[in-house]
Design goal:
By secondary structure, the protein is an all-alpha fold. The protein has one domain (4-60). The protein is built from 4 helices and no strands. The longest helix has 11 residues, at 15-25. The protein is globular, with a radius of gyration of 11 Å. This is Nif11 domain-containing protein. It comes from bioreactor metagenome.
Length: 64
Amino acid sequence: MATIEQLVKQYETDKELQAEVAAIVADGKVTMMEFMTFAKKHDVSISIEDLPKYIAEAKKLGFM
């Protein structure tokens, strides 16, 4: 399982991942379902306890 930090590092150089993220945020918002599907697809370890932190950060950045 990857951490969010590892996925962010991969994002910096992975053109496919960048394109996938661009498609998800193309409408300017990320739904909870999109967020969880993306995390599951990339086998990212996100605990239920950490989820509110990431959602708050996404909202702060205008993604949700």
